[in-house]
Design the sequence.
């Protein structure tokens, strides 16, 4: 167990993992637990502090989520955020009502900076509000330490008990000094020492995996992406050759990528590594198919088939490792929004391969945390900082039908593009960049010859969450140089376009 930890109790708010991440950013280990977690379990974990998350419910509803009220007698500091603040008030004898105006968005809040929670925070600061209910009367013993125009009780404290509550969300970046407030809670109130680093997370996870897996067999579908690689390496450090990684090369990877993955996993780590060269099977199934979702479906299904065939050869395995990370859990978990594109990296693996349980060691981490864990584990930079690459690969970057010839053209063009972006030092500034082979051919002239060849589109976006994105402003001279190189070096390409649309209205990938 970690030496020092803070617990986030989840009351159904959308930012629950984000709170945990902010706490970890302050070098304090943190885990999210459901609000109904047993008091005994909490006592055993002996957290230095507890944070109640927000949530969509109202504490006055009969079935509103609650925690064991015994939590208030443990002598552990508590910070309630939004619903968490209302619950604390309600449970301890204060009054929560529906606010006359629902507050949503950036709001100026006036703080009592004598409170430990607001130590060295500006007196007037912008905070992110999102609530319908609010605290009308604080519970006995509580003092008001912040207010906004429409929320007279924006934060409360009971300094003797170390209970704090805020109506706003310190965890989101829109709260300008939110991280400072969380830092204050952890260090000024909970007296954390801040001894946590990613290294201790990876060590601890490896130990947990060892205990769980014992002498059993584990299987991993390795895509070569950062998530599945980090998950696989963690398991390999725990149980070595009890892990078999199956890497299905569907022939839709970027240039040299299959070999690079093989090199790392067969030489550097102690696992059974199986590369299945299934290119032709995928090409046959995809021949003549032009509809993007159809391509995804075919690739997803064929992937499962190939994987299953290989898995059968190994015999019964007990566990399947997946590199699911936290944003995947939210994206696939909400399930309410319209399906724009079906992603096949979550839950898309064989339901019918014979295994007991799925192991997801990265389920609580955000992408940058996974990268940090990857570096800790000694995975090469190239793999750790690899940009996201969709499961269906180049199939959704070739508009229209897919042929081996088109794949080869795109691989070359994309390779040059990536090489030049790296040379220009732009790779860490751009979220994702790649070339697309449009299905368009147009007239050009090379030497004295007429050409009738493909148009390649270049895409580069900056984004924080891949849900929205802006096109990256690559300097003209660099774009010009890339264009020259592609047209000169890649046969059958005579025109280059740069995509200047954001998401929305476009998506990042073209299909
Ligand atoms: P879009 O194109 O939806 O992409 O704006 C958002 C992010 O998701 C990736 N993406 C996929 N990943 N399977 C995946 O594993 C898919 O079918 C897929 N489609 C898009 C895309 O590369 C970007 O990072």
Sequence:
């Amino acid at each position: 167990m970690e030496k020092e930890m803070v617990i986030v109790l989840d009351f159904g708010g959308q930012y629950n993992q984000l709170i945990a991440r902010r706490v970890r950013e302050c070098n304090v280990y943190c885990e999210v637990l459901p609000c109904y977690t047993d008091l005994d379990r909490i006592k055993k974990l002996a957290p230095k502090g507890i944070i109640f998350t927000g949530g969509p419910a109202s504490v006055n509803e009969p079935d509103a989520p609650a925690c064991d009220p015994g939590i208030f007698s443990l002598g552990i500091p508590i910070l309630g955020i939004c619903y968490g603040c209302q619950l604390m008030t309600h449970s301890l004898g204060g009054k929560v009502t529906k606010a006359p105006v629902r507050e949503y968005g950036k709001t100026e809040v006036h703080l009592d900076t004598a409170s430990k929670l607001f130590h060295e925070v500006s007196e007037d600061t912008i905070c992110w509000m999102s609530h319908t209910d609010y605290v009308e009367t604080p519970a006995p013993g509580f003092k008001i330490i912040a207010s906004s125009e429409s929320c007279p009780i924006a934060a409360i404290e009971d300094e003797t008990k170390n209970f704090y509550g805020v109506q706003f969300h310190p965890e989101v970046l829109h709260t300008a000094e939110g991280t400072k407030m969380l830092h204050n809670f952890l260090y000024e109130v909970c007296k954390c020492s801040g001894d946590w680093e990613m290294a201790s997370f990876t060590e601890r996870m490896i130990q947990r995996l060892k205990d769980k897996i014992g002498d059993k067999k584990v299987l991993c579908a390795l895509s070569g992406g950062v998530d599945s690689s980090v998950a696989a390496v963690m398991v390999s450090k725990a149980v070595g050759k009890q892990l078999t990684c199956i890497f299905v090369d569907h022939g839709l990877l970027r240039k040299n990528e299959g070999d690079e993955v093989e090199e790392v996993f067969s030489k550097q780590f102690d696992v059974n590594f199986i590369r299945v060269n299934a290119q032709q099977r995928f090409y046959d199934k995809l021949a003549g198919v032009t509809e993007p979702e159809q391509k995804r479906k075919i690739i997803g299904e064929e992937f499962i088939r190939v994987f299953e065939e290989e898995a059968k050869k190994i015999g019964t395995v007990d566990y399947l490792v997946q590199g699911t990370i936290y944003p995947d859990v939210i994206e696939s978990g909400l399930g309410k929004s319209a399906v724009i594109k079906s992603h096949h990296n979550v839950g898309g693996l064989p339901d019918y391969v014979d295994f007991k349980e799925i192991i997801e060691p990265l389920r609580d981490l955000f992408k940058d945390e996974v990268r940090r864990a990857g570096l800790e584990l000694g995975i090469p930079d190239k793999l750790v900082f690899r940009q996201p690459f969709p499961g269906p690969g180049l199939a959704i970057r070739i508009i229209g039908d897919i042929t081996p010839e088109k794949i080869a053209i795109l691989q070359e063009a994309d390779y040059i593009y990536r090489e030049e972006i790296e040379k220009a030092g732009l790779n860490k500034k751009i979220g994702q960049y790649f070339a697309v082979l449009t299905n368009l051919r147009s007239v050009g002239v090379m030497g004295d010859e007429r050409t009738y060849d493909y148009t390649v589109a270049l895409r580069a976006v900056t984004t924080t969450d891949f849900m929205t994105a802006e096109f990256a402003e690559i300097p003209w001279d660099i774009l010009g140089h890339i264009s020259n190189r592609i047209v000169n070096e890649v046969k059958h390409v005579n025109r280059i376009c740069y995509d200047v649309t954001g998401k929305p209205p476009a998506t990042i990938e073209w299909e």
